[in-house]
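I'm stuck. Protein, please.
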Amino acid sequence: MSESSVPVPPANFEFLIFSIRMQAESHLGLVQFGEEKQEPNYPLAQHAIDMLAMLLEKTNGNLEMPEKRLLENSLTELRFRYVQATSKAAGA
């Protein structure tokens, strides 16, 4: 399969949110790529979460309801997971 036959995802708001969310989850150690275990990187996870928070602030009043819910729900879940992960790491 050549590179040109690989489908490219749509360049839309939903994909942007999912991309940043995946970065945060990866940095929290919630998802892994490959067999090698990667250590969490909490500062980078926090940065990705902060990016989503900035998007929510800057797009206030300009989002459709499903987009707003996706962004708000992603932020809520990531913030919760960040607190869980950092609390667990501090207790270890």
